[in-house]
Amino acid sequence: MEAPRHLIDKVKQLASIKAVVGDRVSMPNRSGNVMVCCPFHDDGSPSMVVNVKKNNAFCFSCRKGGDPIEFIQRFDGVSFREALESAGDYAGIDVRAELKQQQPVDSAEAAEAKKFYAAQRKAIDEAHEAFRQALKSDESAYSYLRTTRGVSDEAIEKFGLGLAPDDFGFLSRARFKAGWIQEAAISIGLCKSSERAGNVYDHFRGRIMFPFETKPGSVTGFTGRAIADVKPKYLNSPESEVFQKAELVYGLNQAKDHKENGPFLALEGQFDVIRCWMAGFPAGALSGSSVSDVQLSRIFREFDEICFVFDGDVAGAKASLRTMERIAAEVGGSKHVSFAFLPDGYDPDDFIKEHGADVFAERIAHRLTFGQCLSRLIVGSSKLTAGSPESRQKLVAELREWMDRIVDPGLRLGLIESVANAAGIPHEALLDALSHEGNDVADEAATESELPDCRVDPEPHQEMESLIRQQPAFTLLYLSAKHESVRQHILNRQDVACAGGARKVLLQAIAGEDRVIDDELRKEVSRFSKAAEHLMPFGIMLEDDIDACIRLADRACDAILPDLASAAPASPVPASTSINAASDPFALPSVSSSQNTKHHDQVVSPDVDVKKKPEPVDSDSVAALYSPPSF
């Protein structure tokens, strides 16, 4: 017997995910959310979060986990019915007894429901085809799309655009006259019924129709955009069994055409999505008031990074903050989130038409990581001012709140580094302030002696540069793990050979002497490596250029052994690499355009669907043009 939905939901709600996971996986004994080693892949360090509030588990590496029932089914290798019964024991519900009390489903009733659902799908398909044909025969609407909006014939066909004529009976009078098909059309919002007039009329009139798809060719509903100046400008299909707006991503299927051309761009409007597709960018529009778990899952199934694109005004900054609040516990591991901002008053459609795809690509190429964007918003909202301990106390309090929301270790590390850089606060002082509990201690940690005057509008820094600056030992561990030649170079340095005490032990550990690396250090190295691989702006270059890796390792060694740095042999600098050691001894090497490496960001020209590297933009321009304003 099939279990009723209300029973399944009740078991999911009452069964404790911590109890379910804790009986099957080694788990720390602490309250709140916990990180555990994922049992569904070879997990060297904890990458699965057990989320108490959402009552589910999720692995940032392999994307597996689920609610209590799903976890039991996957871990125990049992059927859904068996997993439901087992989860019921954790929920205090005798599922077997509950199912025995259920009345058998009326087969006739089930057949009627199936027939009605089929009628709903048929009504949608017929309406979609009718809208498409109407657009082809209406010169005014077609001209609006082609001339006014600049939509190509290829895009019209690709996205299945149509027209709902300004006619109360276009669908209801000609196609959905009576019977099951009319009832189905009313139930999914294609038609409406007037009790006073006693007739049925069309819901969409005088609108360009954008169909929503779950998969290519499978339409579930529509958004209608008014051609004339009428309200509302956009009208959606109502929620039904067929159409759930918060679970759909408009344009996701079409975005796969340009999957190799950069991150998935999360936009707001259908015309924005179509314009980006025409310019070669993978993009989609998120329906609903905020991004949902289902939408995130569907996008991350196809793309490793989502870039949310907002206006560069206060409203855009607040929208990005709301998005980060919503997804803080969902992102991390191999799935990344970033943010790009357009000038006030521009949407992607307008911006690309006015400035071109190359300039838009430059905006996307200089997108902010989750940590960069959030750190600037935290610093801006705390309204840091010189000599103000109160504002610094607020900064620490806000950062601590965000640290509680974020569960991915690499993301937490990047955020702390970004806030320290954006606020001009020493990294150690910020860590010390975060480690204290309570406002009194946080205020004490935010004194003048610990937190110097802060800059409101600092020069932006890359997270990887900050990681290298603050964590030279882990930088060496990362590089030596990547290349045997780097490891040997570290061991052969004169100052390393002469080092004594704890420094020698540290550098031996860095170079791979297993006898001095304990399990806790291994875990920390693994976490740092994951963060570094995500944040490394020249990651591909470091994979291929051994000399650049050795040079970077030398600078990190110099930081660990400053008193012996002069004894270190100078490593040759590749011709394609330039380092300004005088101004910043920890600056990442810059790569000339002649070096044969791939660029971290991929952009597309408006005419040719190929990868293109944008023109370099200096740091001041990036700060001025691509950063959201403070609140």
What would you call the structural class?
Answer: alpha+beta
Number of DSSP strands? 20
CATH class of the largest domain: Alpha Beta
- From the coordinates shown, what is the CATH architecture of the largest domain? Alpha-Beta Complex
Number of helices: 29
- Largest beta sheet: strand ordering: 11-13-12-14-15-16
CATH superfamily of the largest domain: DNA primase, catalytic core, N-terminal domain
| CATH topology group of the largest domain | DNA primase DNAg catalytic core, N-terminal domain
Radius of gyration: 29 Å
Count of separate structural domains: 5
Helical proportion, percent range: 40-55%
End-to-end gap: 56 Å
Strand residue percentage: 5-15%
Low-confidence stretches: 437-464, 513-517, 533-543, 563-625
What can you tell me about this protein's structure?
The chain has 29 helices and 20 strands. The protein folds into five domains: 5-101, Zinc finger, CHC2-typedomain (DNA Primase, Chain A, Alpha-Beta Complex); 107-243, Alpha-Beta Complex (DNA primase DNAg catalytic core, N-terminal domain); 249-367, Dna Topoisomerase Vi A Subunit, Chain: A, domain 2 (3-Layer(aba) Sandwich); 373-461, no CATH class; 465-600, no CATH class. With 631 residues, the protein is of the alpha+beta class. The model is unreliable at 437-464, 513-517, 533-543 and 563-625 (pLDDT under 50). The longest helix is centred in the N-terminal third of the chain and has 31 residues, at 107-137. Strand 8 (207-215) and strand 9 form a beta hairpin. The strands form six sheets. Strands 11-13-12-14-15-16 form a six-stranded mixed β-sheet. The two termini are 56 Å apart. Helix 14 (348-355) crosses helix 15 and helix 22 runs antiparallel to helix 28.
